[in-house]
Amino acid sequence: MEELAPGFGKANGGNPLVRELPKLVSGEPKLIEPQDVLMPSIVSNYRQLLLTHKNIFNLIVPSIFLVPVAPEVRRHLGRRVPEKMHVLAKICGINSLNALSAALKGGADFVGLVFFEPSPRNLEIEFAARLANQARGTAKITALFVDPTDEEIRGVAERVRPDCIQLHGKESSARLLEIKNNTGCLMIKAISVQSQTDVDRAREYPDADLILYDAKPDPARQNLLPGGNGISFDWHLLDNIDKDQKFMLSGGLNPDNVRAAIRLTNAPIVDVSSGVESEPGVKDVQLIEKFLSEVRNHESS
Q1: Most CB within 10 Å of its CB: which of 132, 144, 193, 215?
Q2: Cβ–Cβ contacts within 10 Å for residue 199, how many?
């Protein structure tokens, strides 16, 4: 069998298995057909390669499985095959130095600061600015608003200096673009989901840099917030979203279900708030650490 070149990796053309399986791995995404998934020759070649190169297992496995699959194959396998192994994580509702420290230590890519008075995670601007200064350069700072006024946006933009603004209310596409132009921030638009019609609403926000899919609050329940209620929605509703759409998955995520959520939705970013709390508004350091660990290690599940 051909020797592997030095520095061989999963994206390296020196992988003989890759060259033997052009339908499975190539420079462009391909669809795997059912007969390819179960082809005996693949299994035989793969087994021989493992016997010859004992230490290459972890390098070749991503080469085979990190490709899109046809819908019928996905149903056969029972889940999506993730296209991207590195999933980003956002810890939202940070309201203490201990919670922020745990999020940054655990490798959170975004930290969310809430500016919405009815929320138990609401922050005063001065303390929010202190938290933001601690996080700056390590994680993206996200300021969350619900139908904010210009004055509210201006005060946070000037004092907290967020990287992103998340709109979690009934803001229009025009309002989102106005805030984007006034602040220069990346814009995240939350979409409350209960049905396919809700998911389709994301197309109304072409100027959003990210769409955040969250569970729609049950109108029969009293005092629910626009988000952070610890409830989820049917993740299969995201099966047919635009393939190039950049999105976050939120709603009812916690350390116990985030791996399954990533596998099913292929979410590039996951967002958690109440799922890492001991009670509403009280972040649990150990749950934050566990959630981030589960996200980092989701590919091993």
Answers
A1: 144
A2: 21
